[in-house]
Write a structure and sequence with these properties.
- The chain is mostly helical.
């Protein structure tokens, strides 16, 4: 197996070629946007010693996830009742059948391609977990679209619960089980902590993403965590930004504490202990990779001083 050196990234040309072939980046504008995202960097940071094949598959999943998110958040799919459901129905169909429909849109072509290569050889438990997590993401997006159409304003607490589901972090973490060769360990005595580890990662990623995407969200007329906190507390966006930064640091500390407790487990058989620690390492590495990527990606409008 050919390995990339530590810290290396795959060639972005391969990701661009795949995106063109699946229809995710056909026009020059879409291709420029994909190139600016630097998803090859994210995948390389998440799998610093991964094979070229595994790192490229991870980057392809990231591109697909970002593309679907952009259709909903930036192109407004779901602004009309039933529109988002028609968009997501073929995605659900791919996960149910494993096959691409005869007349496929770009999102189903890409998902069918990714699913065929990712699901092969994975356990029944993994398959069920991925389908459940991705289906929950689609359900959450459809609910969020309905909230936006109704112009209902969620509480901060309700938004945080929903954001954990719409960030698509859990499906991506499931992908990394495959490409990072670190299976999630299921055992009654660690299940709660493993779930908390995953949720903490989703929260950190979602809140950090909201810090980066605030200007884009405001331009699209959409609330995110910053605007909700600013409205709740009658404070400036700059003050809300400080609050969210503090929330992220506290959640990262909770994730680290959970990781330490899982590494200290000693009652499992040795093979499971090794797998558990490998999985914990994967989660912490992906958190660091996501935060570093958010600092360099060109996916969002550069953050300027916000004094309103």
């Amino acid at each position: 197996m050919t390995n990339t050196p530590s810290g290396a990234v795959p060639a972005p040309e391969a990701l661009m070629r795949w995106a063109r072939e699946t229809g995710l980046a056909v026009g020059s504008r879409e291709q420029l946007r994909l190139a600016a995202m630097r998803l090859d960097v994210l995948a390389g940071l998440a799998l610093p010693r991964g094979s070229v094949t595994d790192v490229e598959l991870t980057a392809q999943w990231a591109a697909f996830i970002c593309w679907v998110d952009d259709q909903i958040d930036r192109r407004g799919v779901g602004s009309v009742p039933g529109e988002l459901e028609r968009f997501t129905a073929p995605l659900r169909g791919v996960l149910e059948s494993g096959r691409e429909p005869s007349k496929a849109a770009p999102q189903t072509t890409a998902l069918a391609w990714l699913w065929e290569r990712t699901a092969a050889g994975m356990s029944g438990e993994w398959l069920r977990r991925f389908v459940a997590d991705y289906t929950d993401f689609l359900d959450a997006c459809e609910y969020e679209a309905a909230v936006r159409r109704s112009q209902m304003r969620l509480s901060v607490t309700a938004y945080i619960e929903l954001r954990r589901r719409t960030i698509t972090l859990l499906p991506m973490l499931n992908v990394l089980e495959r490409t990072g060769h670190a299976d999630l360990v299921e055992h009654p005595q660690v299940d709660v902590r493993v779930r908390e580890l995953r949720w903490a990662l989703a929260d950190v990623a979602g809140w950090a993403n909201d810090l980066s995407s605030h200007a884009d969200d405001m331009a699209a007329g959409q609330d995110n965590l910053l605007s909700l906190i600013a409205r709740r507390d009658h404070c400036s966006v700059a003050d809300a930004r400080s609050q969210v930064a503090g929330m992220i640091e506290r959640r990262r500390a909770e994730l680290h504490a959970t990781a330490v407790s899982l590494r200290a487990v000693c009652f499992l058989p040795s093979p499971l202990l090794r797998e558990l620690r490998r999985y914990v390492d994967l989660v912490e590495r992906f958190m660091a990779a996501t935060l570093r990527w958010l600092a360099v990606t060109g996916r969002f409008t550069p953050v300027r001083d916000e004094l309103e």
